Amino acid sequence: MATYSYFATAAKGLEEALATELLALGLQSIKVESGGVGFEGSRTDGYRCCLWLRTANRVLQQLSSFECPTVEALYSSTVDIAWEEHLTPEMTLAVDANLRDSRLNHSGYAALKTKDAIVDRLRQRFGKRPNIDTKNPDIRINLYIARNQAILSLDMAGTALHQRGYRQEQMVAPIRETLAAGIIQLTGWNDSTPFVDPMCGSGTFPIEAALYASKTAPGLLGSTAYSFQKWPCFQVKVWQEVLGNAQSALHKLPDRFINGADKDRQAVKIAQGNSRRLPFANAIAWHQCSFSRLKPPERPGTLVCNPPYGTRLGEQDKLVRFYRLIGDTLKQNWTGWTAWILSGNLALAKEVGLKPAKRIVLYNGPIECRLLKFEIF
Ligand SMILES: C[S@@+](CC[C@H](N)C(=O)[O-])C[C@H]1O[C@@H](n2cnc3c(N)ncnc32)[C@H](O)[C@@H]1O
Q1: Residues in CB range of 250: below 8 A, 6 or more apart
Q2: If DSSP states are collapsed to H, E and C, what string results for the chain?
Q3: Which residue owns the Cα nearest ligand 1 atom 16?
Q4: Could you identify the atom of ligand 1 that is nearest to the CA of residue 267?
Q5: CA 33, CA 79: separation in Å to the nearest integer?
Q6: What does the pLDDT look like over 62-92, one tens digit per residue?
Q7: Which of 183, 196, 263, 304 to mutate to test the pocket of ligand 1 (most atoms within 8 A of CB)?
């Protein structure tokens, strides 16, 4: 069986969590880098990764790596690739480019030259050229140039994997699904104890916890096809088998096993609506309640939340009082629990008034955050 080199991208800070997932999927030659993890595997492994990975943004199958000091070098190395093995003139394509510390420093121009080389090669072979579709192409090509070394890859899913398909509606500032899944993994929560998000907003933490605990491959929820399903080399039987295995892995959860609460009625309604597409939607109990009044489940477990950290002027005093209330509530009502708080505002996080047992740097989009662990004795 042919072996391919892959690179799965992830938000900064989640690389180790992604590597753990890849190990669990049985993948080989795992190499953790900044912004993602390289690994080797078969074509089937590429399909499995798109379906199963919870923390990856994209799965890239590498095609070629070459010195790229000039735009001429980019064109000539790209036109040499046997693109006719990957796409036909009837398919649409898009090129994404990311450049870092290189002589070529205009990503739009580099993407354009890459596209020209691909189109020229196909026109020469078939007398026809593929069209461009930047939004929903049949094949998405990824160009990455760092220190004048280029890597060209096929984006296997073609869309960002955080788009699981369950979030039909959202409140302001929802956390990315991939980040929520990574945080759950970092907490080390295992599904033998209760899980609570007392400020659940659109419900991302409880939903990701339910997906994880029920061994639901996140890709099973998606309604749109992956890019690789449109490729000439697509192995439909292999894919059916990968999907079948994921269906048989589903593990039923007890009802009301995971809890999501928010003081905002609309948030609870949205979170509940978002959870309807889950295989075991009843596993999550939703409550409209402010944190200070929320009654913890009988057995202690893991509490995870990202409280508001406010960017608007005038909000800070209110938030200082709120973070102090979080600390007081944890001490009074949540003895025996492990609480994990994600905050993008370090000054506010200190107002919780408890000593963190652990601090982990993570990025919520461009915002540098801390994930703080508190053991409530
Ligand atoms: C940053 S959002 C959480 C986003 C959420 N993780 C998601 O993925 O959508 C913060 C949430 O805290 C809720 N909140 C604020 N004060 C609260 C309180 N005292 N008790 C419960 N929830 C509260 C807000 O209504 C908001 O939904």
Answers
A1: 214, 215, 216, 279
A2: CCCEEEEEECCCCCHHHHHHHHHHCCCEEEEEECCEEEEEECHHHHHHHHHHCCCCCEEEEEEEEEECCCHHHHHHHHHCCCHHHCCCCCCEEEEEEEEECCCCCCHHHHHHHHHHHHHHHHHHHHCCCCEECCCCCCEEEEEEEECCEEEEEEECCCCCCCCCCCCCCCCCCCCCHHHHHHHHHHHCCCCCCCEEECCCCCCHHHHHHHHHHCCCCHHHHCCCCCHHHHCCCCCHHHHHHHHHHHHHHCCCCCCCCEEEEECCHHHHHHHHHHHHHCCCHHHEEEEECCHHHCCCCCCCCEEEECCCCCCCCCCHHHHHHHHHHHHHHHHHHCCCCEEEEEECCHHHHHCCCCCCCEEEEEEECCEEEEEEEEECC
A3: 263
A4: 27
A5: 29
A6: 999 999 999 999 999 999 999 999 999 999 9
A7: 263
CA torsion angle 261 266 267 272 (round to 10): 80
- The CA 20 to ligand 1 mean position distance, Å, reads 29
Structure tokens at 164: 């699981």
Protein residue closest via CA to atom 5 of ligand 1: 201
User: What tokens were used for 79?
Assistant: 């036109």
- Structural domains in the chain, sorted by start: 4-155 (3.30.2130.30), 177-215+253-375 (3.40.50.150)
Position 327: which residue type?
G
CA–CA gap between residue 374 and residue 330 (Å, rounded): 9
* CA pair distance 184, 302, nearest whole angstrom: 10
Verdict on whether the full-model pTM lies above 0.85 = yes
Q: What are phi and psi of 346, to 5 degrees?
A: -65, -40
Bridge partners, 359 (sequence order) = 372
Given ligand 1 and candidates 167, 169, 196, 199, which is best to mutate, with the most ligand atoms within 8 Å of its CB?
Answer: 199
Say how far apart CA 191 and CA 213 lie, in whole Å.
Answer: 6
For 252-311, write each residue's pLDDT tens digit: 999 998 999 999 999 999 999 999 989 999 999 999 999 999 999 999 999 999 999 876
Ligand 1 centroid to Cα of residue 17, in Å, is: 25
Which of 208, 262, 345 is the pocket-test mutation for ligand 1 (most atoms within 8 Å of CB)? 262
